[in-house]
Amino acid sequence: MLRCAWCMKKISNNKPVFGLSVKFAEGIDYTESEGTIMQIGLRTRNTSVPMIVTARESEAKLQGTDGIFALCSEKCGKKMKDTLNKELAIFKEFKDIVLQ
Ligand SMILES: [Zn+2]
């Protein structure tokens, strides 16, 4: 079961899941974690949060998505985006997506 990357609440399977698809900055390489969930340290928040690293050859990866944050609500999504805006050392862009 997925957990919200912002508030850590469990996300139930029968509700739509908001997500943020992210692209890593140049030089960031998480190939060893492809297809798994890893903890990403956020400097500006002083904690680490779970991120799904897209698998090689997956549809998301082919569309340029390196990682996905699952989020329980738009409110958490907004806070996550505010934080990602300050984490430019790791991420160079991100956009809203809906996981199912
Ligand atoms: Zn949340």
Write a structural description.
It is a single chain. The protein is an alpha+beta fold and 100 residues long. The protein has one domain (17-99): 2-Layer Sandwich (Alpha-Beta Plaits). It has two helices and five strands. It has helices spanning 59-62, 74-84; strands spanning 17-24, 37-42, 47-53, 67-71, 91-99. The chain has a five-stranded antiparallel β-sheet, covered by helices on one side. The longest helix has 11 residues, at 74-84. The protein is globular. The model has no long low-confidence stretch (mean pLDDT 92). Bound molecules: zinc ion.
Find the structural class using helix and strand composition.
alpha+beta
Provide the residue-averaged pLDDT.
92
* Low-confidence runs: none
Strand content: 35-45%
Q: How many domains make up the coordinates?
A: 1
Helix and strand arrangement:
Layout (H helix, E strand, L loop, with lengths): L16 E8 L12 E6 L4 E7 L5 H4 L4 E5 L2 H11 L6 E9 L1
Antiparallel strand pairs: 1-4, 1-5, 2-3, 3-4
The structure holds zinc ion (ZN).
Task: List descriptors.
100 residues; alpha+beta; Alpha-Beta Plaits; 5 strands; globular; binds zinc ion
Describe what is shown at a glance.
Helices cover 15% and strands 35% of the residues.
